[in-house]
């Protein structure tokens, strides 16, 4: 299940992790650069699984409306592209 974040406000990376632990989050207006981690962003969609709702085109609409979109996965036991289980590290 996914939902839009009510009253989205800019959050730090630490706040995002604490608030959305165990979830997948699509963020906009991210403050990051190539080879530098995200420091702040505005969470827009929170989901139980990665890319939930993609078939409805919600992410395309956000990509068109906002700059610097990204996603953060705080899901437990998520398989990455190489087939290994992700181990979340404390910041």
List strands and helices in order, with pairings.
Layout: E1 2-4, E2 11-12, H1 13-19, E3 24-33, E4 36-47, H2 58-65, E5 70-73
Antiparallel strand pairs: 1-4, 2-4, 3-4, 3-5
Write out key terms for the chains shown.
34% strand; 91 residues; alpha+beta; 16% helix; globular; five-stranded antiparallel beta sheet
Briefly note the structural class of the backbone. alpha+beta
Major beta sheet summary: 5 strands, antiparallel
Strand residue content: 25-35%
- Compute the number of strand runs: 5
Note the overall shape: globular
What value does the average pLDDT take? 87
What is the chain-wise order of helices and strands?
EEHEEHE
End-to-end C-alpha gap: 27 Å
* Unreliable stretches covering 5 or more consecutive residues: 82-87
As a whole number of angstroms, the C-alpha radius of gyration is 13 Å
- Percentage of residues in helical conformation: 10-25%
The total count of helices amounts to 2
Describe this structure as you would to a colleague:
The N and C termini lie far apart (27 Å). This protein has helices at residues 13-19, 58-65; strands spanning 2-4, 11-12, 24-33, 36-47, 70-73. The chain has 91 residues and is α+β, with helices and mostly antiparallel strands. The chain has 2 helices and 5 strands.
Summarize this entry quickly.
Helices cover 16% and strands 34% of the residues.
């Amino acid at each position: 299940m996914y939902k839009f974040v009510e009253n989205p406000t800019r959050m730090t990376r630490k706040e995002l992790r604490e608030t959305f632990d165990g979830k997948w989050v699509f963020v906009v207006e991210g403050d990051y650069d190539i080879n530098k981690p995200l420091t702040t962003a505005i969470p827009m969609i929170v989901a139980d699984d990665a890319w939930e709702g993609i078939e409805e085109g919600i992410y395309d609409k956000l990509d068109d409306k906002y700059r610097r979109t990204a996603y953060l996965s705080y899901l437990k036991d998520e398989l990455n592209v190489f087939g290994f289980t992700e181990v979340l590290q404390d910041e």
